[in-house]
Amino acid sequence: MTEMSRESLTIVDCTLRDGGYHTNWEFGRSLVEEYLAVCPRLGIDVVELGYVRFTANRAGPYGQLPKGLTANLRTALPTDHRLRFAAMVDAEDFACVPGAEAGRRLAEKLATGALPVDVVRIAVRYDKMAAVAEAVAAVRDAGFRVCLNLMQIDLASTREVVQCLAATRDMGSLEALYLADSLGSLTPARTIELVSAFCAGQAAPVGIHAHDNQGLALHNTQVAIETGARWVDGTVHGMGRGAGNTRTEQLLVLLGSGPDELQPLLDLIVRHFHPLMEDYRWGASGLYVLAGLHRIHPTYVQRIERNATLGPEEKLRAMAFLAGSAAHRFTVDTLDYALGSIRD
Amino acid sequence: MTEMSRESLTIVDCTLRDGGYHTNWEFGRSLVEEYLAVCPRLGIDVVELGYVRFTANRAGPYGQLPKGLTANLRTALPTDHRLRFAAMVDAEDFACVPGAEAGRRLAEKLATGALPVDVVRIAVRYDKMAAVAEAVAAVRDAGFRVCLNLMQIDLASTREVVQCLAATRDMGSLEALYLADSLGSLTPARTIELVSAFCAGQAAPVGIHAHDNQGLALHNTQVAIETGARWVDGTVHGMGRGAGNTRTEQLLVLLGSGPDELQPLLDLIVRHFHPLMEDYRWGASGLYVLAGLHRIHPTYVQRIERNATLGPEEKLRAMAFLAGSAAHRFTVDTLDYALGSIRD
């Protein structure tokens, strides 16, 4: 594939949601207003605004939607825009509310914001789908389009993929079913294998949400599209958890956007996102490549990279400990053990 | 293509040469020793050590080979290594020496270094090949294998590509003929078009030297291989001029290397190259994407990005000036005009 036709694709920009892992979901007002003004000019179809949660926590406004969704944002958008808006729910958050009530509660919450969210993306580990089935139905019954983002899907065995797809079929209509490369470990070959299985094994359009630990986010997104994926995620300048995501600007270049079309996005990057990158340092690094290869959860790497007291040798020793610990899930205890291992 | 067979490929790592644009070709002794010790373990075929020049200038040792090639480096290598070594000559440097003497002079120079350079890569703009024909013959006659790296090839029209390939055929045997994406502007479609023409139009193996302005370096390298390219360049952690190059570690992942094989390289990155990246900040940024789209010479961007007195709006205005100036070549005057335009 070279430049790809984009008419058949739904392009989701999830900068505010996935990028929030670096800023604790705080974003400056002018950044968000300029971002929203730019998205319709690029051919973005869906903007994911952040997380919506059933319980209060310490996340900033875009981690607790509809906080942050002010009338100013609505007026920042051109009146004839055709953007749709999405919010993500972490499956574990459904534990805080009876499944049958999830839809109504979400609808009530999101109705108080100034932007009309109609897509709810549920992030769930691929082997935990049974736990969210009731909530999925309730969210759909409340009038939302539901996407499932299957986290850590690269860890799934062939048998587990089959089970997962069977569970999906039992859930009824989905807007999209996503492979989420949470650990940044997908290779192109594995992406093709999984997208093929997802396309063949259920009815919903297949999506890909890639992370860039190994510089393969764009590449995996491209082979996913070639294999039949129709929903694709990007973030501005790649801003996202850990090593970050497929870069929206690069995805658009690949899809044929020219300099004039991209200029407002590149302006936005130079004004707002590159300075953020200088502070938060997402992007492929040696540690993130290691994390991808050993399927280590990205939060370990974010914590280790930001720890100014650690030198390179100490970071490598901590990563070696985690590589030997099947550290797919983040726990503070495991991080403490890993940091303790440095001194052993 | 997914994971690719690598037996048919010649992998060139040109970190010390292309990365030298950031450090003025100064590299610490332990970095180079560890780098050379690691390369044979990765399946790298050729290590490009730096530039060799006919005149003294202000470049550090790896910009003036054989300076820097100490006996220590030789002893850093495992005794059974099968690496070959390359040096690059800038075509403009041939102006300092009669073409017929170029080979003998290079042979004399390089013979005084501790590592046996047998590949000479001549970097020449695609439309200046006539000027180096005599020197190419002389370098080959002196016993070197000669690669031609055709700079800024993306600017060539169809007619110019045809002329360029005809000139190549007249030059006799070449070790490889490279597409060099000097401006970081190649798209996958254009890469396929050019590699196809290069493969069909002359006898030498085709190579690709990619820059990562638009995050497409790895991607372009991959489609080049699929289309028939057999020599591929990478640099450790992407360290190279402007936005940098295809990352050797990511290329190796794509070619099927696993965690154990890559560990020494990732150690090297964490110890040496990631700290350098923190200082020199190569890698895709908004300005480099702009430069790629508008085919602006990377030196402008390096200078603008490093200018601490410029804010984002000023950088954008300077880039807009350069975009309107067909700034494929770097001149200090044009940079001055661009910086002057900020105040107009």
Automatic annotation (TrEMBL), chains A, B:
SUPFAM superfamilies reported for this sequence: Aldolase (SSF51569)
GO molecular function terms listed in the Swiss-Prot or TrEMBL record: 2-isopropylmalate synthase activity
GO biological process: L-leucine biosynthetic process
Pyruvate carboxyltransferase domain span: 9-270
GO cellular component: cytosol
Keywords noted in UniProt: Manganese
PANTHER family associated with the record: 2-ISOPROPYLMALATE SYNTHASE 1, CHLOROPLASTIC-RELATED, HOMOCITRATE SYNTHASE-RELATED
Protein name per its UniProtKB record: Pyruvate carboxyltransferase domain-containing protein
Lineage, highest ranks first: Bacteria, Bacillati, Actinomycetota, Actinomycetes, Pseudonocardiales
